[in-house]
Amino acid sequence: MGMQRVPGNVRRREAFSGPADLARFFRGDRLETMPRRAKDRDALLAYVATRFEPGREYPEPEVNSELMAVADDVASLRRYLIDAGLLTRDRGVYRRR
User: Fold this and answer.
1) Residue 1 clears pLDDT 70, i.e. is over it
2) Domain boundaries, the chain
3) How far apart are CA 73 and CA 34, in angstroms?
4) What is the pLDDT of residues 12-46, one digit of tens each?
5) Among 26, 88, 35, 27, residue whose Cα is nearest residue 78
6) What is the DSSP string of 27-58?
């Protein structure tokens, strides 16, 4: 008997350390595609925001470093987090709500 091929969505869930329902947007723990549907995008951004402690101040280089662990396009991801109200920015200092 040959080995059965493991479906891609199963492999993605096994390789992703976050919530299983978000695995389809990641390859390993790296964001591969931003969800188009608002519900999925909101869930993904809420998950990414957990990398930051609520109320703590983060300088932009530290935010970039944290987000670089998730995605290559740090500026867009940072903007999505701000637009979603998950992070605030004031004079180059970021804070999770």
Assistant:
1) no
2) 34-96
3) 11
4) 667 788 888 888 898 888 999 999 999 999 999 99
5) 88
6) ETTEE----SSHHHHHHHHHHHHTTS-BT-EE
